[in-house]
Amino acid sequence: MTIGDSHLCIAGLHKELGPIIRVSPNELSFASVESIQAIYGHAPGKAPLKRGSFFMMLHSGFKKPNIVSELDQDRHRELRKIMLPAFSHRALQEQESVMSGMIDKWLTKISQQATPGSNGVEIGRWYALDALDILGELAFGESFQAVQTGRLDTRLNLSVNPYVVTLIDNLRHIDFVVTLVKLLVPPSLLHKNPNAVFSREQAERRLALGESKQDFVFPLVEKVLNGEMDKEEMASNMFVLTIAGQDTSVMSLLSITYLLLRNPDKLDRFVSEIRSNFDKYEDINSTKAQQIRYVQAVINESLRMIPPAPSGLGLPRVSSGFEIHGRYIPPDVEVFTAPWSLTHDPKYWTDPMEFKPERWLDPDCKDIKEASTPFSVGPTLCIGKGFSLMEINLILAKMFWKYDLELVNQDFDWIRDGRVNAGWWWPKLYICFHPRADQATVSDE
């Protein structure tokens, strides 16, 4: 599984052996709609399943866990309650103008680098630059200027290496390795992790701005200033917000862009829907974009075809003892649902390997849509779902309204060549931007 085909291995085993397979001595993978609710949902009268020890690596370098790595159920609920107001529909609408302006600057910059006839730009890298600048502004209090410089400061390399995550996930099941690491790697060394040091510095800078700036971390600032949270916990949460916000948005945008450019008939309709709904570039907004049914169908279908966390290896929960598919799963066994296995299972989808946005629009379609949950469900529903969808819709609407895109490396086949460990390795898609054929000039504002 370390060679990048974990999602395919797990899917193959499920196809051969059924909806429950063992992937390590104390870890089970599930491939059924029923398992989604059983593992990640909230059954009446039962507490949600606890997170597995894997999640602890997501606050490595910090003395305090964060909203993703917190294993204590009560504290996790408290953190969600604290942070939810910053991700409400109203709060996101208040931040949209900031995000929109940053996307405009990004689009101007990238179009200058990806002119027709060139080798194009690696679009994933540029999506990452934009995502980091937006998150910097809305979570750290200031843009990182990554788009302006066209490069990433090494301190801003906050994304998690999928290979390292998979390696750690495998090794944590071996007791003597865990003991050896604890002996050889003192906590003081982990606390000097560059990402952790940088996040602490940014937390101090954000605290200096006080409560005047209404951004994603405003609720955390408020708690720290009131003495209800310490700075270390704030820094840990700022760090994980950046990881989650960057990786999810970048992978989603990459998959949507790739699938559209590989399917010209879908691309034509997608572009037509966007351009017919917005007369002017300046009219583009996320609220209206999210009301364009075909655009949302493309997003949903792309996240089904290429789910952000395809193998499920990085999403373990700990069984409290439950029955599913006629089997009793004893307490303390780690369990997860395998997204790729579900989203490519003909039991749930007609022609699962085909890109068919129309399946999300056809009222007579018999596909089981509940088999695709890219943002999870219930108490594990991603707190940043609304933010991610706002960003995705704005970028797509602005980019495809203003430019005709061309995929340079046509020989790349994501399904064949895409590599997965705990998460995707960002594929190198090279894109050229052509000015719209039907307009000589379009506003750069």
From TrEMBL:
One of its GO terms (molecular function) is iron ion binding. Heme binds at C382. Keywords: Heme, Iron, Metal-binding, Monooxygenase, Oxidoreductase. Its cofactor is heme. InterPro entries: Cyt_P450 (IPR001128), Cyt_P450_CS (IPR017972), Cyt_P450_E_grp-I (IPR002401), Cyt_P450_sf (IPR036396), Cytochrome_P450_monoxygenase (IPR050121). CDD domains: CYP60B-like. GO terms for biological process: mycotoxin biosynthetic process. The keyword Membrane does not apply. Gene3D superfamilies: Cytochrome P450. The keyword Iron applies. Belongs to the cytochrome P450 family. PANTHER family: CYTOCHROME P450, CYTOCHROME P450 MONOOXYGENASE ASQL-RELATED. This is Cytochrome P450.
